[in-house]
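Rotation project, supervised by the postdoc (A.L.). Task for the rotation student: set up a whole-complex structure prediction and record inputs and outputs verbatim in this book. Inputs entered:
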Amino acid sequence: MDQQTDVIVAKRAGFCPGVKRAIDKVLELEASGHRPVYTIGPLIHNKQVTQQLAEKQITTIDKPQQASDKNGVLVIRAHGVTPEFQKEIESSGMKVVDATCPLVKHAQNVIAQFAAKGYHTIIVGDADHAEVVGLMGYTQGKGLVVSGPEEARKLPYFDKVNVVSQTTQKESVFFQTAEEIKKHAGVCQISNTICQPTKDRQKETIELAQSADLVIVVGGKHSANTARLALLCKALSPAVQHVETETELDENLICSAKKIFITAGASTPSWVIDRVAERVKNLRNN
Ligand code: SF4
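Outputs recorded:
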């Protein structure tokens, strides 16, 4: 059997369009002489990319006051921020570039639209995630975050509620949670704001991980979306290895597997995925 044909790399592995757009914007700014570039919060949870950006003196700060050179540029990352924080950033007097992903902006608008009509907002997601913190800012103070159906069971009763999702949420978790929330509301608007790139990635992962006997998930150990992807794969395939780089690959697992599926989180650069795929193929050739 040709072992190369049994190593499949996900077509949708790596940077999602929103993260790619934000990184491209930052690199364009730096290349066109707009320096220094400050990002409000890390652009991405990937050590290799963060190192590359630091070499170009693109640095991360938490708030505009921390920028030591006021002639620099402030960049709002793909996750977006609350409207209040956006105003604070824009009134800093520095040049501001808003790299909020248009699909996150869509979720912000959906929340704002229903909040203006008096709806409570329930976000299905991770309360500590930067995108969710930003989304909460659009709820007019009537927002709550639940991580899944278990937490939704403890909710009180609402007259009108708008259920939205963190853009990277697993679809099955969103719908199960929304079903539970329906029991706690007079009027329940279900706004599925999971972004299309996430839906496509989940569909591809489910199809290919099911047929593999080893899945290699490439991405930062601190990346929430990579960890979630690894968890999804664990439910579908008998063996899953989560690696940051090719140096962590398990040779025994790779050589004994019949079919390997390589996938990656939305914050993993393509060159890291390519190196992992190359190493897997080399190990299987030896
Ligand atoms: S995961 Fe989706 S919404 Fe979030 S930045 Fe990427 S493309 Fe945009």
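Student's summary: The mean pLDDT is 93.
Supervisor addendum: The pocket of iron/sulfur cluster is lined by residues 16-19, 78, 101, 103-104, 167-168, 195, 197-198, 266 (CB under 6 Å).
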